[in-house]
């Protein structure tokens, strides 16, 4: 025990000695929370940066183009001698591509979610779910290429008059891209419905289908709706697929076999054309981007509001 | 020579626990708690606690769940502050200084006061790194010194022979009892003066429990030990003094023999004989 | 005698049609699940058959060229590699730092929830908007020009929310008893964070960081806004060089394929390289996750 005691003295002493040396580090440590706060505030600065940039340059744009003309104009001719900056053609293209995408992603994503949550045996789900997630990991440029070089020619067999760039093909492919998002979020919502609710319905002799539609889906509705809203937001903000496959027609039309430009594709076209800073067309980038930003932000806030406000208490 | 003799005496003491060795010099008080009150938000969890804890003794704290015994233990090294809503009043002096004083550096306190938790909580590192962690954070980097500390600590926890050939293995490969003794060894590595034990055997089988109890008897020669336990027999077997907590108050605090054989308060007797709680 | 509302025969008759309906819909649901996977399979087969024969050493190593038979993508590969050099440290430091602040240092309160809400909103901002931020802030205001640093910082800001959220989850999964043990030995907060919590959370953080990186590598939209030259001959050799990147090259070759049909095949070949790169990154992420799955 004496030997142990001797060592005991020495280690305690060593710690005591080191404590003097460590004083400097201990002083430094006081600054760590501040340092981390500064790092964490970078994300806030990013938001501030985005909002400031979009607003500041948009203000310059609205000095040249009255805001009402912008919001209600049906003619978009940025490069003409007498340029006109009507938002509606772009808004129209955005809405139509989003509707097409949701017509694909909504039902298919929802049915996939039902299969995965209610019908699939465990081992099947464990294979299918990650495979489906791969769809969400494919870069959008790849989907754009696929829509342009494969889906459009394929659609020509059905609609012979379809143009080389059209809104239908990117709309469909955008839908495919959004399937995993809706499937995965809806499945989460449905899986979290407690089994006791299912058992109650099944014990009365309901089939699985009836249980799903009369018990599970109503109970999971807020989560499902939120997933649709997020899907819409994703479709509105998607850029490369439409930029490649839908071309740059700025006509205000409803022909889905023809070219239409979305807000995002407009930004790509104009920014890629290296519009000189200070011109109205350059500032129009920011006005369109601001509109886009407001739309997607509202959708995201709506999704959050729905899933929070109507969160089911089981 | 003196080493050998001391060892023999010690061994003899362990074999005959009835023949307790009473030192001529009175034992020094390590912790002196005066008028301690503690609130979790609105809940008054500890009420006017007065208690002194002496060196080279095992002090057991018993009482039903939620009586505040763990809270009191965690106040002794201020771990209780990890819950942000805690407020305290009164004082706890450790070696003459009030540890509840905000100017008291909590890291210094915790270096001198080791803690063993209810569930063994080794780090997801090797056995060696688990033991070396404490000395390293306190600035000891010399490999030779660290090797020595690791060996001594593992010896001190009587687990050296089992583990000496697998120091590089991950600590998660050990059995529950071994993990708990590893945690005790880890706490010995910084050579504390006090070891706080929060139901250290509640997750262990009887055999591992016995080994830990034997270890506590050994450790008390050098350390003050405060142990919170649910197990009446354990308190009776290993402690010198026992405090009985109920609803955040100390009902009785006395020599263990006295508490178990001749309690002053009726509630103590009721609890010990299993009539409530 | 009490009236019986349930007619056993009728119920049974209806039941068989209800069961048939259930079976039919089950098939439909299964087919829907397969639909996405079939599209994925067609996409992969199509791109591989179209592009695989264009992949050879010359294609991988050559400079860009308007001549389809001589064009190579080494410049784009290097550009993508340089972007990663910028994205990795920036996202790791800011992402992990922010996560540590939010999970371990920030007091639960308005500031903390404000930052957290802000991050979740940032995650929903379209990537093209980040492109405009990059154009205004890095290319024009800070006058970097359309160089790798500007592109890398833009992509880093874009994927930052992914890294932060992944790191937060990884930090949250470290059991509190580990940090308790560390504090119990007199360790300071930072010592506990650096030596116990971070190492335990590292596999989760790395997995998230790699997934974020693969998102950054495939991103095209923000780069199109920064003004990447369509035909850039010299290879980049530092963060202040102009550059092109794999997805940008796919973009240019795809839109020009209406002029030169062979460009579509070059785009397909470039996509194959890009997909292989992403596949490797994701495999690493899965390996890390499986190997270091903690047994607390």
UniProtKB/TrEMBL annotation, chain A:
Its main location: membrane. It is found in: Cell membrane; Membrane. The chain crosses the membrane at residues 31-55, 91-114, 134-155, 167-186, 215-232, 280-303. GO terms for biological process: phosphate ion transport. Part of the binding-protein-dependent transport system for phosphate; probably responsible for the translocation of the substrate across the membrane. One of its GO terms (cellular component) is plasma membrane. The keyword Transmembrane applies. This is Phosphate transport system permease protein. One of its GO terms (molecular function) is phosphate transmembrane transporter activity. Keywords: Cell membrane, Membrane, Phosphate transport, Transmembrane, Transmembrane helix, Transport. Belongs to the binding-protein-dependent transport system permease family. CysTW subfamily. It is a multi-pass membrane protein. Residues 91-303 form the ABC transmembrane type-1 domain. CDD domains: TM_PBP2 (cd06261). InterPro entries: MetI-like, MetI-like_sf, Phosphate_PstC. It comes from Oceanobacillus oncorhynchi.
Automatic annotation (TrEMBL), chain B:
Keywords: ATP-binding, Nucleotide-binding, Transport. Residues 25-272 form the ABC transporter domain. Gene3D superfamilies: P-loop containing nucleotide triphosphate hydrolases (3.40.50.300). SMART domains: AAA. It comes from the Bacteria. InterPro entries: AAA+_ATPase (IPR003593), ABC_transporter-like_ATP-bd (IPR003439), ABC_transporter-like_CS (IPR017871), P-loop_NTPase (IPR027417), PstB-like (IPR005670). GO terms for cellular component: membrane. Pfam families: ABC_tran (PF00005). This is Phosphate import ATP-binding protein PstB 3. It comes from Oceanobacillus oncorhynchi.
TrEMBL record, chain C:
It is found in: Cell membrane. The keyword Cytoplasm does not apply. The keyword Cell membrane applies. CDD domains: TM_PBP2. One of its GO terms (biological process) is phosphate ion transmembrane transport. InterPro entries: MetI-like, MetI-like_sf, Phosphate_PstA. GO terms for cellular component: plasma membrane. Pfam families: BPD_transp_1. It is a multi-pass membrane protein. Residues 77-285 form the ABC transmembrane type-1 domain. The chain crosses the membrane at residues 73-102, 114-138, 144-167, 196-217, 266-288. Its main location: membrane. One of its GO terms (molecular function) is phosphate transmembrane transporter activity. PANTHER family: PHOSPHATE TRANSPORT SYSTEM PERMEASE PROTEIN PSTA, PHOSPHATE TRANSPORT SYSTEM PERMEASE PROTEIN PSTA-RELATED. This is Phosphate transport system permease protein PstA.
